[in-house]
Amino acid sequence: MFWLPNIETITKDGFESILRAVDTIEPVIVLGGIGEKKNMYRHYLKEGFILFLLTGGRREEVVDLKWNDIYETKDGIKFFMINNLKVERIKNSNNSYRKFVPINVDLIEFLLELGYNEKKYTSDYILFPERKVKSITIMNDLSKSFTHYKNGVGITKDISLKTLRKTYISWANQVMGKETGLLTSHSNNSVIEKYYLDPKILSVIEMGALKIRVFGENSSRNSSRKKKKDLSKIPKSLILL
Fold it and tell me: Which phi-psi region, left, alpha or beta, contains residue 125 (left: φ > 0; alpha: ψ -120 to 50)?
């Protein structure tokens, strides 16, 4: 296993300051040249940032998440099962490569706020369901706006929207170890039927749903400060998949 040193992650305080900034920081910027103005605010920004943090997904994965991507085990453990598009492009094969995102307590709370009980099993997008623009437009708006509000609150670290994925993987790796890789990419050989998963994959999903907490065990609504863990070392294989 290879390790990437000095991977930038975001702190809980930093992330929350960016969320607050969406409602408080001036959203209009003046571009160079002829002085064109651009409004960086979008009504779905905070929901998008939170989804990125709590799923650890790539841009195309998070923006195109649908309610019917959510599956449930016989024991009631919920998870997203989506195609790992990057791995499929790299492999350039006819196989489908799956990616599993355990739905932990923080994520299910957020999904409930977004209307899980009313919208589950539908093919609606979770983020910005009334969209009239292409997914790539939403991806770019999220990326650029994250940087705008990050700069607006004075965060000087070299972080971007991608940092939310790295932060999730860092915390997942703290409790999952080498098993984290089984969530990021798996051939369709492990998916025998629509509602059947290889028991090894299933056990890892259940472990992730129970143990993964971004920013630590007390990370949800009522958090208390704990000693920070070293999150700078992320397995290279997890970053790439």
Answer: beta
Residue 239's contacts (CB-CB under 8 Å, 6 or more residues apart) are 4, 7, 166, 169
β-partners of residue 29 are 38
How far is 19 from 11, CA to CA, in rounded Å? Answer: 13
Task: Kindly report, residue by residue over 177-188, the tens digit of the pLDDT.
Answer: 877 776 765 444
Q: Are 59 and 51 in contact (CB under 8 A)?
A: no
Cα separation, 161 vs 163, in Å, equals 5
Between CA 92 and CA 226 the distance in angstroms is: 44
Beta bridge pairs of residue 28: 39
Token digits for 158?
A: 């070299």
pTM here is: 0.82
**Higher pLDDT, residue 90 or 58:** 58
pLDDT for 200: 67
Type of residue at 163: T
